[in-house]
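Treating backbone geometry as a discrete language has practical consequences that deserve illustration. Part of our work consisted of pairing the sequence of a single chain with a tokenised description of its backbone. We regard such an encoding as a compact summary of how the chain folds. The amino acid sequence and the backbone structure tokens for this protein are reproduced below.
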Amino acid sequence: MRARMPFDTEKERKTIKFFSYRQVAYLAVSFIVYIQLIQTIYTDSMGFFGMIILIFVLLPVKAPFLYFALVTNSQTGYYMDRHLYYYLRHKKQIGVWRKR
């Protein structure tokens, strides 16, 4: 028995130059969170090298956003946020798309 999943791929194809709206939203949120953390921690007494170190220390904060926005699953071809959403929502169903 094959399960047909309600995948809407048309929304993924609408792009802003190179990125879809969903990817732009992830990148914008990661940029806003990153800048807000830098503004919260930064003080004038840090100096140039302190600021450079702070920028590199806070880079892992952007990792989950970039992972969900830019990495695709090799089996399904969907980006990780959509793949994890469908996987968690339909994990008890058996079908061709789950490769069981």
The two ends are 12 Å apart (CA to CA). Residues 10-70 form one domain. Residues 14 and 20 are 6 Å apart (CA to CA).
